[in-house]
Design goal:
Length: 293
């Protein structure tokens, strides 16, 4: 609907999935209109990752994606996510075993390396390619770098332009809109872009980028009615998937994006951040509609 060529589930703990934890299994649910879709898994134990990949395959996604990029401390501390960048042989072995265990294509998302002293992504990408993965996405920061540090795309470009690489290479990090998307794609030659935070409260970013890459023109920004219509759909699906309390709470990261640059929005944003029920959020959105009509 919004132009994304492919989507991924939230990343799912391999341990939680094989224990049939409700929270993890729920993340396997998706609608047919969301295809093509990948189920993304993470974990530190190879056997658990293999079993989780096989479990995820039964949900019939289009591919399985392994997350070797999450920088969250509690994930990294267990040697999962970006934590596995401290043990490249294990990372390679885990990937080999997951690829062998499923019939679906397997892809990987990772980072430049663990820290500034270990930006080994050019070598890592080659080794991961040799395991049989079908594509790799690289985030342009190390695990230890904060989001405020600009993403470094030079090494992503080196991976893409490495003559040994023949699988698609996707870039991630600091793609904030059509102009930055075009700049990164043209300058570094990547096969595509993965967008995360910039889509919060801005699901239109995908079709805006595709239109700009095709025509060189910027699409007009959606009006207040369209913003409220889509944010309501976002809210409803968040609540359906995660329950009212958590669904409403997780929408908080989207509100600033949905109404970015609207003057005098701060009092409404405060109300949205304090709301804890579906009905209250709907009420506030109607207030916003009336105010900016």
């Amino acid at each position: 609907m919004m132009g994304a060529d492919m989507m991924y589930t939230e990343f799912i703990s391999s341990e939680g999935l094989i224990r049939d934890a409700d929270k993890s299994v729920k993340k396997l649910d998706f609608d047919e209109f969301e295809r093509p879709i990948g189920i993304q898994i993470f974990g530190h134990d190879i056997d658990s990752m293999v079993k989780a990949a096989q479990y995820a395959e039964r949900a019939n996604p289009d591919l399985i994606d392994i997350n070797y990029g999450c920088p969250v401390r509690k994930v990294v501390a267990k040697g999962a996510g970006a934590g596995i960048l401290n043990d490249i042989p294990k990372m390679v072995k885990m990937t080999v075993e997951v690829v062998k265990a499923v019939n679906l294509p397997v892809t990987v998302k990772t980072r430049l390396g663990y820290d500034d002293e270990h930006k080994d992504i050019v070598e890592i990408a080659e080794r991961l390619q040799d395991t049989g993965i079908k594509a790799i996405t690289i985030h342009g920061r190390t695990r230890t770098q904060k989001p405020r540090v600009p993403a470094d795309w030079t090494l992503i470009g080196e991976v893409k332009n490495n003559p040994r690489m023949h699988i698609p290479v996707f870039g991630n990090g600091d793609v904030t809109g059509p102009e930055s998307a075009k700049m990164f794609k043209d300058r570094y030659g990547v096969d595509g872009l993965m967008i995360g935070r910039a889509s919060y409260g801005n699901p239109w970013i995908f079709k805006e980028i595709k239109h700009y890459l095709k025509t060189g023109e910027l699409l007009s920004a959606p009006d207040i009615h369209e913003r409220i219509r889509i944010s309501l759909i976002n809210l409803e699906r968040s609540v359906d998937l995660k329950g009212e309390k958590r669904g409403v709470l997780e929408m908080r990261k989207h509100w600033a994006g949905y109404f970015k640059k609207y003057p005098h929005f701060k009092p409404f944003r405060q109300k949205l951040m304090e709301a804890v029920t579906f009905d209250k959020v709907k009420e506030i959105l109607e207030e916003i509609r009336e105010f900016y009509r």
